[in-house]
Design brief:
6-stranded parallel beta sheet
Length: 327
């Protein structure tokens, strides 16, 4: 059985990953490191694992094969490079790093060490997402002209999030750097690399990071992608819309409708069947490590870099009141 170390409980999903690992029957959590010793010690006790205040000491353990990185986003670069150089396979929460430059340095370390890297992009495995992707690949929607995704909640009002979630020195940003990762990595999944991008990020309730955010980008062939997110929106359904020259796809939460001129029935309709949901990215990671398989393309290091490119450039666009042209 794989032996895994949890690297920080900073991220709100860290506990969920630990539970999935414990319940998988595929791996054992044997160690915990946390930049906040008191938090890490308590978590290690809860997990029945050994706590380390020194990351290097944990990584020196030969029996640990893989690590789960839930450290502050701004710490990912240093933590993951150390883990890779120690020969540990790496699963990380998104976003990988705040800048592409940092991501490329992580990629170099991962490739030099020859370890597996997987990032948590769970929305790419949803049945609706897989169905939409196949519609596009099969040409059922024609040339894609527009993709819009909205993922928002009222976590700021409902106190779902710890105070440090609004600390740019740890989180690297606000709503878009957090929840907005999902719309952003889906734009990249459907549309590829951006040509130009900007963002409009606001904080109407005074947090030092964005509370409400929209990014808009032009992709290949003039397709427009819109990513919307918010930490201050009540009862906002998750929405994905894809429009093409020969059809469209709309998903509100789990309600999917689509149309195509290539079908006998050209009206909006429900699909007869949706693909099965893919396993959670952390479980796919465990399988890749155990079986010596490469990371799934939609969850690999290049996918991680694609997300950071959109995030970094959109924040630059917002800060400078400009549209950023991608090199």
């Amino acid at each position: 059985m794989l032996k895994v170390a949890m690297l920080s409980k900073w991220h709100v999903h860290a506990g969920g990953y630990a539970n999935m690992i414990k319940n998988s029957g595929k791996a054992e959590i044997v160690a915990v490191w946390d930049e906040v010793a008191e938090r890490g010690e308590a978590w290690a006790k809860e997990l029945g694992a050994e706590f380390y205040a020194d990351l290097d000491a944990l990584l020196a353990r030969d029996d640990i094969q893989a690590v789960i990185c839930d450290a502050p986003t701004t710490a990912h670069h240093d933590v993951i490079i150390k883990a890779a150089k120690a020969g540990k396979h790496v699963f990380t929460e998104k976003a990988l790093c705040p800048t592409v430059k940092e991501c490329l340095e992580v990629k170099e370390a991962i490739e030099e060490a020859g370890v597996t890297f997987v990032i948590s992009f769970p929305q790419r495995g949803r049945p609706a997402t897989q169905f939409a992707k196949k519609l596009i690949e099969d040409g059922m929607l024609g040339q894609i002209v527009s993709v819009r995704m909205r993922d928002a909640h009222a976590g700021q009002f409902l106190n779902w999030l710890p105070d440090y979630w609004y600390d740019k020195n740890q989180a690297a940003g606000g709503a878009m750097m957090d929840l907005g990762c999902h719309p952003m990595y889906l734009l990249a999944y459907f549309l590829g690399k951006p040509k130009r991008i900007t963002g409009l990020y606001t904080a109407p309730f005074g947090k030092p990071v964005d509370e409400n955010a929209v990014a808009i980008a032009e992709f290949a062939n003039g397709a427009i992608g819109v990513a919307e997110t918010s930490l201050i929106s009540r009862n906002s359904p998750q929405t994905l819309e894809i429009y093409g020259t020969e059809g469209s796809f709309i998903c509100h939460d789990h309600d999917v409708m689509f149309s195509s001129v290539k079908l006998e029935n050209k009206d909006m309709q429900k699909p007869e069947n949706l693909p099965a949901e893919k396993p959670a990215p952390v479980l796919q990671f465990l399988d890749c490590v155990a079986e010596g398989k490469p990371a799934p393309e939609e969850l690999n290091i290049d996918a991680a870099i694609g997300l950071t490119e959109l995030l970094e450039l959109s924040y630059i666009g917002d800060e400078n009141n400009t549209i950023v042209v991608v090199d």
